[in-house]
Amino acid sequence: MISTPALPPESSTEAKRFEAFLRAKKLKLTRERKAILAAIARKAPHFDAENRVSRATVYRTLNLLVQCGLVQKNSLGSSHACYEASHGREPHDHMICLQCGKVFDFYRTDLAALQNDLCQDRVFAPLYHNLQIFGLCADCITGADEKFIREQVARINT
Amino acid sequence: MISTPALPPESSTEAKRFEAFLRAKKLKLTRERKAILAAIARKAPHFDAENRVSRATVYRTLNLLVQCGLVQKNSLGSSHACYEASHGREPHDHMICLQCGKVFDFYRTDLAALQNDLCQDRVFAPLYHNLQIFGLCADCITGADEKFIREQVARINT
DNA sequence: TTTTTTGCAAATCGTTTGCACGCTG
DNA sequence: CAGCGTGCAAACGATTTGCAAAAAA
User: Which chain D positions have some atom within 7 A of a protein CB?
Assistant: First the structure.
């Protein structure tokens, strides 16, 4: 076993932010909340290490972390969502193939600027965005029904 | 009962597209599929009029319509989704408040151009996009913990 | 007639909630 | 000590799936 090392600067930053948030809302800093935050800070895949914390608590805490900006929750009206730690997240977006479902990441630094630009004339403080481009990937375009698909693409893109 | 009128031009366009798609995939044009397509074409809210078609069939057909481009399915890796008819859809995007969950629509004509631009150097044929901007709405910014929230926004937006 | 579809009901899966007990401030 | 938070198990709601009957090609 390794003696507990000093926490990396990022996680203590995150912890401080979370604590400040809880204080502002008069909520309590429990062992479970610390554990979940720690798991996120160390980028634990799917919170495996936090099996001792009940699922209900994980969800309740995730909601707090979302409100506090430490976790991003992506959804759109649906009851399902996709949680992702904000910390160290390269702001990337997705291209999703409608035919096979494959997801491609892409990075564009200018999208953050666009985001701020979009919000400049309205009272809305943007924290992060999520851009999904749906279409057809190379494999699916060259598939059997290529002709049909190309026609489809042409029609919609005009 | 009313004698069947000629279908409006849009729906017949959609119907043709769907038929071509089914033919290309050697699938059958059933009464249920027609009914669901018709409901979408007439912008029926939530397919109320299609109660006679089983839920399973609605979902199965929606998947076909998505592949064929007549319906947009918005999700992000999650198993839940948000279906929306492509037909006559103003290409709009969403700002979503993390605090209260309210959704604001916004329209930007230049986003379609951006979408094509993003895909120009890779083999991916974009059909449509979905941009979500998460942040805090006016009401929530002016709420009790304004100070904290502003700090948060400032931190993330840099 | 052959193959695809449908409807039903059961199975999933992520998420939420009510409640009694436990812990933080 | 007063609340807030937790675990559990049941409730939920959207979506999927297996299977036998029904419909399209």
Answer: 3-9, 13-18, 23-25
